[in-house]
Q: What sequence folds into this?
């Protein structure tokens, strides 16, 4: 039995095909594109908000995408416990919708950064990370606005509830300023919501999931999601 | 018809790397007396409303829901009858 990945396509999405490819060809599950003007999630088991520059990043990243018709359905899906993964611009959209707390500021360096970074997997007890065996992943980032910001109270809550899933780190897992590429608070690269069913991450796992590229550290995230859904379906 | 102008500013507690970079430029130009540069956004639009109060209500809602993000920005606006 296959599960279905729904990949939302906004005007300006540019990592939608990569996500579709990984779901369909690498982990061999069903995958479907969901145009942002529609509101039917077509029975998807998991929704991916892909990377890119939805609406040209005008006003603020993700600010206009949050009002796309499909987002009403995605928000309802997430509120009812549906699994949602926002990658890069998808993370920015999740922040704008309020499904995840905080905002993204411009990178501290003001530069667009495109490079492989190391991530410490801070929480392996999530839907998105429970099949990851490594403690440190090497996954690329590609963004101009990935400088995660939230007030101190929110940051404390994120820590208390183990909502910080990925932190920028050294290859050995050291999470100091030196290994923070963009100025993010607490080196945050990815967080989940309180219920643990919505993950936002700036790095691109879909760009490091095919062995042809000689980097496959991203695949564990897709495997974790898939296995979690399948185990739940068996339970029912 | 009313004409609205909205100014969106970064909250004082939020770092503004763009403002900082522009201020570096000011220093290069020789403006050593410039300090605290912050960059925001200016939005203007017309709004068709019955009266000032209803126009004001809509401008506020527009600014709160879309034009600004309250986590990092504050806004102020000016509203006048279009001539």
A:
């Amino acid at each position: 039995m296959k599960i279905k990945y729904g990949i939302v396509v906004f005007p300006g999405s540019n990592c939608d095909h990569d996500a579709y490819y990984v779901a369909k060809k690498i982990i061999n599950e069903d995958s479907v594109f969901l145009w942002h003007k529609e509101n039917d999630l077509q029975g998807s088991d998991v929704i991916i908000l892909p990377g890119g520059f939805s609406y040209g990043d005008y006003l603020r990243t993700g600010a206009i995408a949050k009002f796309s018709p499909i987002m009403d359905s995605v928000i309802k899906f997430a509120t009812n416990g549906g699994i949602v993964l926002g990658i890069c611009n998808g993370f920015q959209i999740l922040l704008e919708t309020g499904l995840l707390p905080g905002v993204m500021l411009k990178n501290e360096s003001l530069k667009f950064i495109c490079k492989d970074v190391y991530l410490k997997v801070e929480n392996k007890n999530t839907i998105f990370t429970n099949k990851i065996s490594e403690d440190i992943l090497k996954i690329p980032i590609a963004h101009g606005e990935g400088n995660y910001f939230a007030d101190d109270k929110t940051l404390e809550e994120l820590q208390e509830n183990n909502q910080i899933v990925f932190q920028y780190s050294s290859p050995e897992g050291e999470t100091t300023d030196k290994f923070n590429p963009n100025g993010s608070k607490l080196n945050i690269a990815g967080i989940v919501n309180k219920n643990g069913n919505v993950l936002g991450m700036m790095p691109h796992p879909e760009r490091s999931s095919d062995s042809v590229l000689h980097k496959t550290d991203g695949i564990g995230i897709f495997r974790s999601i898939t296995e979690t859904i399948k185990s739940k379906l068996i339970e029912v | 018809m009313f004409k609205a102008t909205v100014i969106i500013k970064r909250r004082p507690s939020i770092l503004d790397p763009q403002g900082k970079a522009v201020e570096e430029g000011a220093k290069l130009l020789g403006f050593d007396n410039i300090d605290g540069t912050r960059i925001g956004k200016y939005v203007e639009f017309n709004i068709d409303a019955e009266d000032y109060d209803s126009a004001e209500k809509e401008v506020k809602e527009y600014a709160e829901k879309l034009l600004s993000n309250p986590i990092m920005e504050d806004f102020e606006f000016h509203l006048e009858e279009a001539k």
Summary: The mean pLDDT of chain A is 96. Helices of chain A lie at 16-26, 69-79, 89-97, 152-160, 219-235. Residues 82 and 217 of chain A are 24 Å apart (CA to CA).
